[in-house]
Design a protein that fits this description.
The structure holds three protein chains of three kinds. Chain A has eleven helices and two strands. By secondary structure, chain A is mainly alpha-helical. Chain A has one domain: ABC transporter involved in vitamin B12 uptake, BtuC (Orthogonal Bundle), CATH 1.10.3470. In chain A, a hairpin with a 2-residue loop joins strand 1 and strand 2. In chain A, helix 1 packs parallel to helix 5, helix 1 runs antiparallel to helix 8 and helix 2 packs across helix 9. The longest helix of chain A has 31 residues. Chain A starts with a helix and ends in a 14-residue tail after the last helix. Chain B is α/β, with parallel strands linked by helices. In chain C, the strands form two sheets. A two-stranded antiparallel sheet of chain C has the order 1-4. A two-stranded antiparallel ribbon of chain C has the order 2-3. The longest helix of chain C has 27 residues. Classes of the chains: A mainly alpha, B alpha/beta, C mainly alpha. Chains A and C meet through helix 4, helix 9 and helix 11 of A and helix 9, helix 14 and helix 16 of C.
């Protein structure tokens, strides 16, 4: 039992990270139709930024953590909006593949800049709250993992409230549903491309800050995160935030169980599992696994 | 005489709205047949269902009496059907000649290895295809555009090039979706002469067209579609006088029949 | 492509009454401006051939490139051809190149280590395995459109990489050592110079064959599929088969590249087949020009040179960045090309040649010989250098 719970919590933590990256992908995709290859790099920027402002683990503290997180999230959101203006905007309407390739370039540039600044070193971050791991259902879970779950829940609720209860959130949805009609009522869809990138970058940066104490941060941590985010996003059916969160968590837990219970001979292959699931889902059920749920209007 | 092409009782709906309800048509060799109807009557859906781009929910499509219902577009092309699209689907990054050569794809039978090695027989069939393509461009009056990029052409020229692409393989059934839309008067004249000539050579021509003058001048048979149903079939004279057709076009109770009579 | 259309008879005759020098100039101007299609492949072959023959002289002279880069450039060119055909001509971003490259390399490595079978035969086995795998993958994958194909193929690529890393038979990251080199008769390919020539003979032959393919009805169908699948299909071209054909050709070429790499290096490990390879190739192909086979070697060499220069001189400018430093350049180059020169070096070269041609034509003082429907400025399915 205790072992199972440990695997479960490990899977939940990975799953929450998947979900947060997947949410970023979803926000951008829903508004712009772009698949953002650089989404994981926004997570990396969030982690690196927080470490930069709060001071790396073991070193002297700089800003209080809360302030560092807020400054970082705002900064990364601004970077997201700026890069959209700079490199995505000029090629709008030139087809999804070209835009995808531009985001590949974007990912390489972000990694490159961070590589130069950090000299490819790995940095850690102090835990958000002090104290040892808690024991739940006979298994241990670190306090930082709880923070990661909390941030995921918070982001999901905030996005839900934003999209369904605020004017600008509704304008976002109008752009994704019908850009022409949105323009007729005075919403400029092109501006929402920038907002979508900023929002997605901000969400990912928050995720990065929350996971930094668990995963540590290096300049090239983004791509693997983005890949798992893709899987979460595909599992969740591409358009539903709840679906993406469920997809991400399901994937993380399944991965955690595989890593825990797979026979040793097969263990090296477990890394292929998420991608196998993703390819099968894309080919067999393009609407994602969420469509299997009885009420799919989630 | 068996019709070269027949569609029987096609049904198709989108999200519960019936786009086609038991719509039928029968087209013969040497004939120009027009499909008309008010906006939203289902003409383009009808085209898509017979060319394989959409699947009818029920009904039959026959080519030369053989059931080909549900065949994909390339199969219909193999059976001798060619078509154009309402919104002109040229390949913008290719030049005009290459666009037309795509329409001749099935006439070049050599495999990829022959193409890679540029075997003499492949060169010969490319050369023959090239002269057929130029001839098709000649017939549509666009030969002088052969080396222009298709995406750069004015709309009317694009339509004519698309017709050349449909024509080049020598189809037995030619479906044209609003071929005269956007053409200049001169281009429309070329088009009319061309369609008469194609029919004279034996092909069946089926066109969707809004320009009533073109329809009445060319078509030997007209099928009128309204709200997905065929409401009348007959030669132009009968159709112009048909009260059901007039009502469909002008709304019930309207008196001006001049619109349909076309002038 | 027949020459009569690209260069109407009138073009040549215009210079007939003039001095031989002027005739040459007029002809030269026509070639430069792209009015003489038929000469393009010959010219491309000559330029590339001379460039390759002289590689032992000019590669080391750069100070940061070696003949090893010459061999690698040939291998990357073989890999890049598949990407040009798939992405540039057919409009399909399929990212499985690292997997097919790996299958080829491991086929050679596993089958030839300890001299089990002849390396050429092993290369053939790799090709066959790759073709079978490509066919099996094509059926599910090409049901997907646009960037979903990219995401799904990325998944397949990563699965492939995981298998290369995990399977006992590949040796994972420890790799396989002691792979014998290739030989023809009693001649063993040992020196870098011999390898450069061998790899480039194969690469240029593949370029020529694929150039023939893209100027045939298959090439037109490929461009048609990337332009409008609906119209391609109603013209009788089957998008699924066209995509599958190109996918299989790409896999076979990658397989050859992988086998050559394994025999050349004598050692393979999983790290050669990760996503970095795919991304590097993407940058090379974009730099050369997505729709140009002839410009591909220039994109490949350009990026190899950039990478080598950054690794040679980078650390003195930006300290402590290690061997990862080339990615800094890759990202910037990729974005710059996509935004500013989406046609790559090919379109830049074509533009320069056109300007030069205009200049030569003016020097020859002939009235501008724009043939009816002149080819200049159009992009036919022909790719001109």
């Amino acid at each position: 039992m205790g072992e199972f719970v440990v695997f479960l919590f490990a899977g939940l933590t990975v799953g929450a990270i998947n979900a947060l990256t997947g949410l970023g992908l979803l926000i951008i995709y829903n508004v712009t139709g772009v698949i953002n290859f650089a989404q994981g790099d926004f997570v990396m920027l969030g982690a690196m930024g927080t470490i930069l402002f709060a001071g790396p683990n073991g070193g002297p503290h700089r800003l209080p953590l809360a302030v560092a997180v807020i400054v970082t999230v705002a900064g990364v959101a601004a970077i997201g909006g700026l890069v959209e203006r700079a490199v995505i905007h000029p090629r709008r309407g030139k087809g999804p593949i070209l835009l995808l390739m531009i985001t590949v370039g974007l990912s390489l540039v972000i990694e490159g800049v961070v590589l130069i600044v950090t000299s490819s070193q790995t940095y850690g971050l102090r835990n958000f709250s002090a104290g040892g791991p808690l024991t739940v259902f006979g298994g241990e879970v670190s306090r930082q993992s709880l923070w990661v779950y909390g941030v995921t829940a918070l982001v999901l609720i905030a996005l839900y409230l934003f999209f369904s209860h605020t004017r600008s959130g509704k304008a976002f949805r109008a752009c994704e549903i019908n850009p022409l009609a949105a323009r007729l009522v005075g919403i400029r869809p092109s501006r929402y491309w920038t907002y979508a990138f900023a929002l997605a970058a901000g969400v990912s940066a928050l995720a990065g800050a929350a996971i930094a104490p668990v995963t540590t941060a290096t300049y090239n941590m983004g791509l693997p995160l983005a890949l798992d985010g893709f899987v979460a996003w595909v599992l969740g059916g591409l358009v539903s935030p709840v679906g993406v969160v469920l997809g991400g968590i399901g994937l993380g837990v399944a991965q955690g169980m595989l890593d825990g219970y797979l026979p040793t001979a097969l263990l090296p292959y477990s890394g292929a599992f998420p991608f196998l699931v993703m390819v099968v889902v894309l080919v067999a059920r393009p609407g994602g696994l969420v469509q299997l749920l009885p009420n799919r209007r989630v | 005489m068996t019709p070269v092409f027949e569609a029987i009782d096609l049904n198709k709906s989108f999200g519960g709205v019936a786009a086609l309800q038991a719509a039928s048509i029968s087209v013969e060799h040497h004939r120009i047949h027009a499909l008309i109807g008010p906006n939203g009557a289902g003409k383009t859906t009808f085209f898509n269902c017979v060319s394989g781009h959409q699947q009818p929910e029920s009904g039959k499509v026959l080519m030369n009496g053989v059931d080909v219902t549900g065949a994909p577009p390339y199969r219909m092309a193999e059976l001798g059907m060619a078509r154009t699209f309402q919104n002109v689907e040229l390949f913008p990054a290719m030049n005009v000649l290459d666009n037309v050569l795509v329409g001749d794809h099935l006439e070049i039978s050599e495999g990829p290895v022959a193409a890679m090695l540029r075997l003499p027989r492949h060169r010969r069939s490319e050369r023959r295809a090239r002269s057929r393509a130029l001839a098709a461009l000649e017939r549509t009056g666009t030969a002088q555009l052969a080396h222009r990029l298709a995406g750069e052409l004015p709309y009317g020229s694009q339509r004519l090039v698309e017709i050349a692409r449909a024509l080049v393989g020598g189809p037995s059934v030619l479906l044209l979706d609003e071929p005269a839309a956007g053409l200049t008067a001169g281009e429309a004249d070329i088009l009319r002469e061309l369609l008469v000539a194609i029919a004279a050579e034996g092909s069946a021509v089926l066109l969707v067209e809004h320009d009533m003058r073109t329809v009445m001048a060319l078509a030997e048979e007209i099928t009128v579609l309204d709200a997905g149903r065929v409401i009348a079939v007959g030669p132009p004279g009968q159709i112009q006088a048909n009260p059901v057709v007039i009502a469909a076009y002008l709304g019930v109770g309207a008196e001006e029949s001049g619109e349909v009579a076309g002038s | 492509m027949t020459r009569s259309l690209g260069a109407p008879e009138g073009t040549a005759r215009d210079g007939s009454g003039r001095s031989p020098l002027k005739k040459v100039l007029v002809r030269g101007a026509d070639v430069l401006r792209g009015h003489r299609d038929g000469l393009a492949p010959a010219a491309g072959m000559v330029v590339l051939g001379i460039g390759v023959l002289t590689m032992p002289a000019w590669l080391p002279a750069t100070g940061f490139l070696t003949l090893t880069d010459g061999v690698l450039a040939g291998i990357y060119t073989l890999l890049g051809i598949g990407m040009v055909l798939l992405l540039g001509y057919t409009g399909q971003l399929a990212l499985t190149v690292n997997a097919s490259y790996g299958i080829g390399a491991y086929a050679t490595a596993i089958l030839t280590v300890d001299d089990r079978i002849d390396p050429w035969l092993a290369m053939l086995v790799g090709i066959v395995v790759n073709i079978v795998v490509a066919l099996a993958l094509a059926f599910p994958l090409f049901r997907l459109q646009g960037h979903f194909l990219a995401v799904a193929t990325l998944g397949v690529a990563l699965m492939g990489y995981t298998v290369f890393e995990a399977a006992p038979v590949t040796g994972g990251s420890n790799g396989i050592n002691g792979i014998p080199t290739l030989s023809i008769g009693s001649f063993h390919f040992v020196s870098d110079m011999a390898w450069t020539y061998l790899v480039w003979v194969i690469a240029l032959a593949a370029l020529l064959a694929c150039r023939n393919l893209v100027t045939s009805h298959f090439g037109r169908a490929m461009l048609a599929v990337s332009g409008s699948e609906a119209a391609a299909e109603s013209s009788g071209a089957r998008p699924f088969w066209i995509k599958t054909l190109v996918f299989v050709v790409a896999a076979a070429l990658s397989s050859v590249a992988g086998s050559l790499y394994a025999s050349y290096a004598g050692f393979v490990s999983s790290s050669s087949f990760d996503l970095t390879l795919t991304l590097t190739l993407l940058v090379m192909v974009v730099v050369g020009g997505l729709r140009s086979l002839w410009a591909l070697p220039f994109g490949v060499l350009g990026i190899l040179a950039l990478s080598a220069a950054l690794q040679t001189y980078g650390p003195s400018v930006i300290p402590a960045t290690g061997s990862d430093i080339p990615i800094v350049g890759y990202g910037v180059i990729l974005i710059l090309f996509l935004l500013v020169v989406p046609g790559g070096l090919a379109s830049a070269g074509r533009w320069c040649a056109g300007q030069a041609g205009r200049l030569v034509a003016r020097v020859a003082a002939t009235p501008a010989t724009q043939p009816a429907g002149g080819l200049y400025g159009t992009a036919s399915s022909e790719s001109r250098p």
